[in-house]
Amino acid sequence: MSHLSDQLMIAPVVLPLLAGAVMLALGGERRRNVNAALNVVSTFVLVGVAIALLRTADAAPTGVMGVYRLGNWPAPFAIVLVVDRLSALMLLLTSLLAAAAVVFSLARWHRVGVLFHPLFQFLLMGINGAFLTGDLFNLFVFFEVLLAASYGLALYGSGLTRVKAGLHYIVINLAASLLFLIGVSLIYGVSGTLNMADLAARIPAIRAEDRALLEAGAGILGIAFLVKAGMWPLCFWLPPTYAAASPPVASIFAILTKVGAYILLRLWLLLFGNDAGASAQFGGEWLLLGGMATIAFGAIGSLAAQDMARLAAFSVLVSSGTVLAATGLGQVDVTSGALFYLISSTLGLGAFFLLIELVERGREPGADVLAVTREAYGEDDEMEDAEEVGIAIPATMGVLGLAFLVCALVISGLPPLSGFIAKFALLTAALNPPAGGSGVSGAAWAFLVVLILSGLASLIAMTRAGIRAFWASPDRTVPRVRLIEMAPVVILLILCAMQTIEAGPIMRFMQATAQSLHAPQDYVRGVLGATAQRPTASVGGT
Amino acid sequence: MEMLIALGIGALAGSGVWLILRPRTFQVIIGLSLLSYSVNLFILAMGRLRLDAPPVLAVRAAGDPAQFADPLPQALVLTAIVISFATTALFLVVLLVSRGLTGTDHVDGREPES
Description:
Number of helices of chain A: 23
Oligomer: heterodimer
Largest interface: A-B, 30 and 33 residues
Distance between the termini of chain A: 27 Å
Order of helices and strands of chain B: HHH
Structural class of chain B: mainly alpha
Helix content of chain B: 55-70%
Mean pLDDT of chain A: 82
CATH topology of chain B: Helix Hairpins
Largest sheet of chain A: 2 strands, antiparallel
Number of strands of chain B: 0
Strand order of the largest sheet of chain A: 1-2
Radius of gyration of chain A: 23 Å
Number of domains of chain B: 1
Low-confidence stretches of chain B: none
Strand content of chain A: under 5%
Helix content of chain A: over 70%
Low-confidence stretches of chain A: 379-392, 531-542
């Protein structure tokens, strides 16, 4: 491995940190254009870095591209960053979403409040760090970095609803962080290590009398992540916060719940996989049940949602519940389907959050609520029908409508787009358990029913919102939409379409990823066995 | 000493949980602070309680870990203190903004109708 590609592994953490710091040093808000340029450049470089890391990780025989040891200390004693297929994939997803959000924000949203660009870069640093780290406590630190930045971004633009939702968001996440600390310290107290790979190697040998403490620690830690991933009943903070956040922020927040889901996927399969001895599969049924409850709650919520932003927020819950439930099923093929779904739904939701603002721009605030009330109380507005005939849809409305249609297809999982392929992969895998199993389990059938029904619910909700926005409001003014705002939405949706066209190679990649997740020996060996001397690269600790 | 620490953690955590369930923002912030103190003590206790043992290796005594207190939890506590201090300060600002915008210190931004 060359020297340069070694340093590339830490670039996703260092680059946003430096970019954010330079922005602040240059005077913060007084040089907004310089900051904006820095933000765009840094985010696009991150896309390139992520692609390079992904290619190298996929080419590596074990799927572990490399282990970056900060300060060159041997692995169990010091902090490591690990790049494997899954973390490289999540880095790429984050940077793509971030690129779309930052370009979108240039049109007007970055002028609404202060310090959008530095906060955005610090958020990226936290997210990337959480994906890369191989150490539980370092994970806590990166989580706090991303949360601190997200507090600022959730409140970005101020206003009453944002402050109210932000207050709850901050309290709940502070409490969850404390649970995180309790879980981490319990695990440390029992096992004496914080390195994830070392922990995985030690868990089978934990004494029987300490096992209850270890599992209690893991359970408490799991609750902290489930709060972030938005599992029912820990998710009531999510819809108000996401619905109130400004559109580019909400769009990048679509990845935040996936950070929680990613950690659960990684840690659960690493620590409590089949090699874990007496603790194998600990808590799997809770992931499955909780995930399905989340899907149900999200689906019902999206049917009840009275405006598009809340509809999108509840769709986030559906998406994160699907990933959690699929993780809980604990089969290799289901996991690969879940990864495919994760990519598709996150891109779709990111585009949807951006699109909502463009669509809503032409309507007076509260139009949706009025329309729903009118529907509910049967107050008809027949008289407008006569004037509606023959109104030509202007080009802007055509593009917006088409983008909305594509979003609806991706999110509700209808053919021909990636959402359908993802759900198809999930269900095929769930209904075809590996040979030697005891046939299709009841859990898989329940998963099938919940998934199909949630697709139906989100289709109904999206159709209703779409009809109301595009067909049934004759008095609307056509929104003025600039190219720079429309382009990110379209590009995110094109990526979803690409995922459909290239489904074969992408699915193969997901299979390989899921296989190495379910058989983490290579990961453990990669981290603990990396003893070859490398040039020292030291970065300040925490 | 174990009993003292355990009782201290229990009292702090109990008061903290009770306070964050209260409806006023000021009670919530005090509750969060108390909870974070109890968690910090808990982390320290997880490194096993030792009296009069140095946390880092002394010059002539390297090689026998049994003589030292575990330094790792102390490093963790330090980080946790800094982070919870910073986030509490941030929360305090949001609390004041919310008080200014809504005119009430209720966590929901409005007084419950009685």
